[in-house]
Amino acid sequence: MSPGLGYLTSEAEPNHIFPNQIVDNASFGLAKFDYRAFGARQHLENLHPYNGRSGGIRNGVISFAQRVRDGSGKPWREWTARAGSCAVEEAERLLRQDNRADLYVSQAAFGKWRSISDLMAIGACYADLDYHNVSRWRGKAPADVAGAVLDHLEEAILPHPSYILSTGRGLVCVWLTELLPRAALPRWNAVQKRLGAVLELFGADKRAQDAARVFRLVGSDNSRADSNRRMVGMVWCQGSPEVPTRHVFGTLADEVLPVTHADLISLRAERAKRKAEGKGKAGPAKFLSAATYWETVLTDLQRLRAYRCPEGALPDGQRDTWLFVAASAISWISPPQVLGREILALGNEAAGWRDSETTSRMSAVIKRARQAAAGQTATFNGHEVDCRYRMKASTIVEWLDIDPAEQRAAGLRVLVDEDRKRELNTERTKASRHSRGAKDRAAQQAARREMGQKALYLRASQGMTVAELAAHLGVSVGQVHKAMRQAEQQ
Q1: Alpha helices in 234-289 (DSSP H)
Q2: The pTM is what?
Q3: Which residue among 17, 47, 48, 258 is least enclosed by CB atoms within 10 Å?
Q4: Model confidence over 18-45: pLDDT tens digits?
């Protein structure tokens, strides 16, 4: 048993509704944990922490949902609350109502509605373990399965989660991190996939690895679970129930992924060394992977839509092309199991299309993504390639008729022409120099003119030569010549 795990054995469990909430860790030299301290407020505040802005106000919304059986034909009701205190108050309100069964909360924050294309921030990695589907673990106490999960993670040399929840018939393991933007999704998805693969023997749900996932709210009831395990609650934590340990995502990813970020840097350094020795392949460096490229394309598409249509939906004549490109982008950054749902949500949001219309128009994108997930490839220029749709940025700019003024006004980063690309490179270079402490061009010129004026005065008043001026000012002879010339031209 993992030394970091503290819980009572199944034989010693008190006969409570949630037997493992009070845990004695005395044998491990730790304090006694009362897991009931992790309620709805702690659940929301840890998943969706406040930020440093005034009052801790954050942008975006949190999605809530409840499974319903009202005969309306809609088994699922979903709504949103603004991230921060509003979401916390909504969670507490839900647990005060008579029907607390099957309540869910999103693990991420979104702009207006729950979809990967509208993701604002995510602050956790997770794994949904449906261990009731695995014969070895079916019927076991949640804390016993949690202990086995921790042992397995230790054997795999992977970090323990921040906390583990019992959801009635399964477990949710959560690794809290700092808040991450959608730009981090490619690496975040890789971490999710790796965690799911490692925990597969506990029934890890591959369909529950996307960033738009909802899980059961702590304190709610699972109507499908046995009567003595219906309440959703914590069974283990790292840190304390009120404030579980929060991982640094970069470190977590390095520990989880087979190839770490440091390894990649080392490989790049070795590649650069080989190139300097004439052993490397010639050609431009590629800074974007397929996933990061398409995430940036999707961000640009959303910025372009917001600029062109502040009211939301695209007008007729712009919908099909925009949604085809956006759906293609989503196919590169969304798990295939939830791709259909993501494209339907985007079709409704961006074009006002019904699900049937979106499915009909985007069926080719969905089909190719499923083929890619199944390992199928396509032949392009004599090579086997991923069969998902791909297109150059210049092609997208042409298709969507994005003019230079829009590229600047909308703040696009990839969907730009060559002139704008050069401007962005100049801006990035300037920002990089500034971050390293370098003065901007205007400041450098002002300092050079001031030095030139001083040099001219010393030469006129004391007859100093250029070489003597250079030694006196601590610069090169060339710098003195340039400074004096600029001062004379002023």
Answers
A1: 249-256, 261-276
A2: 0.71
A3: 258
A4: 444 444 443 333 345 788 899 999 999 9
- Smallest CA-to-CA distance from 91 within 124, 51, 43, 59 is with 43
The position carrying tokens 């640094």 is 248
Distance CA 192, CA 125 (A): 6
Q: Coil, helix or strand for 401?
A: coil
Distance of alpha carbon 23 from its chain centroid, rounded? 33
Phi and psi at residue 278, in whole multiples of 5°? Answer: 80, 15
Q: In the chain, pLDDT over 90 holds for what percent of residues?
A: 51
| Strand 233-237, strand 103-106: pairing | unpaired
DSSP tag of 129 = E
Q: Residue 477 has which token pair? A: 């002879």
Radius of gyration of the chain (CA): 29
Is the Cβ–Cβ distance between 147 and 87 less than 8 Å? no
Query: Mind giving me the DSSP string for 63-101?
Result: EEEEE--SSSS--EEEEEEETTHHHHHHHHHHHHSS--B
Given a contact cutoff of 8 angstroms between Cβ atoms, the answer to whether 121 and 109 are in contact is yes
Phi/psi at 380 (5° precision): -135, 120
Please name which of 371, 403, 398 lies closest in space to residue 387, comparing C-alpha atoms: 371
CA–CA gap between residue 217 and residue 270 (Å, rounded):
48
Pick the closest to residue 232 from 168, 277, 284, 293 (CA basis).
168
Pairing relationship of beta strands 119-129 and 76-82 according to DSSP bridges: unpaired
Which amino acid is residue 316, in one-letter code? D
175, 223 Cβ separation under 8 angstroms: no
Contact between 218 and 12 under an 8 Å Cβ cutoff? The reply is no
DSSP state letter for 105: E
Dihedral class, residue 60 (left if φ above 0, else alpha if ψ from -120 to 50, else beta):
left
Which phi and psi (to 5°) does residue 215 adopt? -130, 165
Quote the CA–CA distance of 481 and 490 in Å, as a whole number: 14
Residue type, 337: Q
Domains of the chain by start residue, with CATH: 10-247 (3.30.70.1790), 290-434 (no CATH), 441-489 (1.10.10)
Closest C-alpha among 173, 178, 180, 166 to residue 217: 166
pLDDT digits (tens, 9 = 90+) for 335-348: 888 888 899 988 98
| Tokens 């261990």, residue located | 131
Return the sign of the alpha-carbon dihedral for residues 30, 32, 37, 43: positive
Q: At 432, which helix (H) or strand (E)? A: helix 418-435
- Between strands 383-386 and 377-380, the pairing is antiparallel
